[in-house]
Amino acid sequence: MMYHPYEIEGAARPGRFLVTCDHAANTVPSFVNGGTLGLAARDMARHIAYDVGAAGVARALAQALNGPAILTNFSRLVIDPNRGEDDPTLVMKLYDGTVIPGNRHVDTTEMERRLNRLYRPYHTALAELAARRDDTVIVSIHSFTKQLRGRAPRPWHIGLLYAADTRLALPLLARLRDEPDLCVGENQPYGGHLPGDAIARHAIAYERPNVLLELRNDLIDAPAGQAAWAARLAPILQHVAGRAGV
Length: 246
Fold this sequence. Notes:
It is built from six helices and nine strands, in the order ββααβββαββαβαβα. By secondary structure, the chain is of the alpha/beta class. Helices cover 30% and strands 16% of the residues. Helix 4 crosses helix 6. The strands form two sheets. A seven-stranded mixed sheet has the order 1-3-2-6-9-7-8, with helices on both faces. Strands 4-5 form a two-stranded antiparallel ribbon. The radius of gyration is 17 Å and the shape is globular. The protein has helices spanning 41-44, 54-65, 108-130, 169-176, 198-202, 223-244; strands at 6-9, 17-21, 69-72, 94-95, 98-99, 137-144, 158-161, 184-186, 210-216.
């Protein structure tokens, strides 16, 4: 089977919501070090290699919103599509205490190869999907680990990340904080967005309403949790977007 760096699900769905999953897979393509970064399988199954559970949530959420989903098919450790091309963390050599042997000697030529074969095709496809309607709303699905090595536990069930555009994020934040069983983070566990990241490129640059959702990965590491979160979030997103007039 021919390798493809991304997958689009529900391309013909007419809804205005576009669900993205930048860190959907832990795949290392065969043209990158023969298909390995030199890490043990247990490390490739950790949050350092991909966003655990995020793909399942993204697929189910897009279906519930009757819109398309686009998901990467390469590990964030190979190259991170949620970074600008000039970001020094585009290819990580150390992540959460783990050295990435396959990235140790990445030079300009190898960086360009990964950009051309993985990163740029994904962003081109994402741009085309986002432009399919004039009123596209982008929802980016990510997940985070409950505790980084040597750090305090993270209490949030879900975090909302936003920067310049708050039209969807702030009313959604308020709505989720009305849920009595949720601990909701505002720009947690990370702050806002990075210059040149996926939201900056495809939402903010075109004034498209957007939000990035971070779900704690122990809550979505199985299909039942993924389906439950998608079913919970879809009507909330539709209601909030309607009320906010975006």
